[in-house]
Amino acid sequence: MKGKLEPSERQELIQEGKILKEGLLTSEEDLLKLTEKLQKEAQCIPNMAHPDVPIGGEDCSRLRKTVGSPRQFDFPVKDHVQLGKELDLFDFDAASEVSGSKFYYLKNEAVMLEMGLTNWAIAETMKRGFTPLTTPEIVRSSLVEKCGFQPRGSNTQVYSIEDSDQCLIGTAEIPVGGIHMDSILADSQLPLKYIAYSHCFRTEAGAAGSATRGLYRVHQFSKVEMFILCRPEDSDSFHQELIEIEEDLFSSLGLHFKTLDMATGDLGAPAYRKFDVEAWMPGLGRYGEISSASNCTDYQSRRLGIRFRPSTEQTSSNSKKGKANVGTTQFVHTLNATACAVPRMIVCLLENFQQEDGSVVIPEPLRPFMGGLDQIRRKGQ
């Protein structure tokens, strides 16, 4: 307006513009703070539960299936800690000095057992169409939050890196969930099925006592995790597929276990439905969780921004029913399941296949992945 207004009038407008700009900056800062507050409140809301999920605490969980029966021993049973000491497989004392409690060194055949279990689990799931991955083990805190976990707070199980926005992962589910973040997938790409190997880190705050001794509950461990991204209408069937894969894997090793349809109080925020696998651990004298399979529906994908564009045929069919328009994107559903949590599998194998002479038999499916080793014996035997 220069030249069209009196200088005094123009100056008033310039001043008014400055005031508006400063007010806008203040409003944007307030909006950012409000958005962050709203996001934190929203993260407290868990996923919906499947209508068939039992309502209540863990004790209300429903037995889905029992496989095998407990082995009957005609000699005194040892737990994995004692077996590991006699067979020179672990060193908890040195690890405690080096890193603190709930850390460990694996030694000798235990190292071969970890590598064998890992390669066996990856090989078996690849036969079923899963693509192998190794993942970053440090991720941004925002990714942890989007996957439904709390990276900070008094009850967190996540190790956060000081003076950064990064965390150590507690499961490969988190970095695998992030691999397609903020993307639109083609319908033809689905389902995407991954099998991911990673180390996992958990604070295990509050965990103590004989029930968690030895390798059962530790701060760092190796894990092989299945992860699926699929169309919404397919997630229930893929959930069944994941638990059946787990049952096939553990059955092939000769383990006795049960699978449970977990009650609402034990689901965790992202899970719509969760099946747990609990194996018999004779040395500990109880069942212990070795795996779980969760259908998270679109709880994670909405936060991660993972969508897909249905094919023309599918959207055209849906349009007739009034459900969608051609070109409309939808959020994928995500599922995850543990193929092998190494330390707990080692607990199961040592305790279930121990022999009277102190040796441990290696299940046949693992032998090709351990150089043909069929037994772990005391050194010098």
Structural class assignment: alpha+beta
Number of helices: 10
| Overall radius of gyration | 26 Å
Largest sheet: 8 strands, mixed
Strand content: 15-25%
Order of helices and strands: HEHEHEHEEHEHEEEHEEEHEHEEHEE
- Low-confidence regions: 320-324
The overall strand count is: 17
Strand order in space, largest sheet: 1-10-11-12-15-9-8-4
Net shape: elongated
What's the N-to-C terminus distance? 98 Å
Q: Could you estimate the helical fraction of the residues in percent?
A: 25-40%
Which SSEs are present, and which pair or pack?
Blueprint: H1 7-43, E1 62-67, H2 80-86, E2 90-91, H3 92-98, E3 105-106, H4 109-126, E4 131-134, E5 138-140, H5 141-146, E6 166-168, H6 173-178, E7 183-186, E8 192-201, E9 220-230, H7 235-252, E10 257-261, E11 273-281, E12 286-295, H8 299-304, E13 306-309, H9 312-320, E14 330-331, E15 333-341, H10 342-352, E16 360-361, E17 375-376
What does this structure look like?
By secondary structure, the chain is an alpha+beta fold. Helix content is 33%, strand content 23%. It is built from 10 helices and 17 strands. The strands form 5 sheets. It has an 8-stranded mixed sheet. A hairpin with a 4-residue loop joins strand 11 and strand 12 (286-295). Helix 4 (109-126) packs across helix 10. It starts with 6 loop residues before the first helix and ends in a 5-residue tail after the last strand.
Give short descriptive properties of this protein:
33% helix; three-stranded mixed beta sheet; alpha+beta
Précis, in short:
The chain is of the alpha+beta class and 381 residues long. The protein has helices spanning 7-43, 80-86, 92-98, 109-126, 141-146, 173-178, 235-252, 299-304, 312-320, 342-352; strands at residues 62-67, 90-91, 105-106, 131-134, 138-140, 166-168, 183-186, 192-201, 220-230, 257-261, 273-281, 286-295, 306-309, 330-331, 333-341, 360-361, 375-376. The model is unreliable at 320-324 (pLDDT under 50).
